[in-house]
Design goal:
Oligomer: heterodimer
Number of helices of chain A: 1
Distance between the termini of chain B: 40 Å
Radius of gyration of chain A: 13 Å
Number of strands of chain A: 9
Radius of gyration of chain B: 13 Å
Largest interface: A-B, 23 and 22 residues
Helix content of chain A: under 10%
Order of helices and strands of chain A: EEHEEEEEEE
Largest sheet of chain B: 7 strands, mixed
Shape of chain A: globular
Structural class of chain B: mainly beta
Number of strands of chain B: 11
Shape of chain B: globular
Amino acid sequence: QAGLTQPPSVSKGLRQTATLTCTGNSNNVGNQGAAWLQQHQGHPPKLLCYRNNNRPSGISERLSASRSGNTASLTITGLQPEDEADYYCSAWDRSLSAWVFGGGTKLTVL
Amino acid sequence: QVQLVQSGAEVKKPGASVKISCKASGYTFTSHYMHWVRQAPGQGLEWMGIINPGGGSPTYAQKFQGRVTMTRDTSMSTVYMELSSLRSEDTAVYYCAREAGDFDYWGQGTLVTVSS
């Protein structure tokens, strides 16, 4: 099944801003947006943002999500060491009648 | 608080089947669908399917059609995922994840190793 496209890696300095992207098509990201998940090594994923760009309770205000056309973005400001993790986007694909994930972006905080 | 607790690691031979459980607590079990997602070593997330604990037929990803079976036991607030005809490529961590708009709570994962 076709997935979403994410850059494999992004590196930014401490306290800088990182913007992660997730590109799909009109049947998934362009239709209902994408959710964002964070995964630290050896742990299950954690939901950071819903497809409607809202954050679950307890998620830092340093994170914000947006969408333009078929591309969703996650912006993390004031990068901290604990932000170093893998980030995945997910979306419902109406043509496949399936959920799809991006391949993940490894964020390195220098 | 919402918790999803999965069964322990499994080691299986090629051709065998594995059945993993996911016990939910902290919310009304039948109010939220449950996903199953897997992650091969060093790889990304792969959606396997979704089941409605309240009833109805599960929906499976095309890739797993014919090999996966998702079931529920409402008396135990538990969902199960059985994968048959295992091969080495099925070696992965398998997760259950609650559906509440998106994958809002995840189990701790169950490592399934397929090896002869």
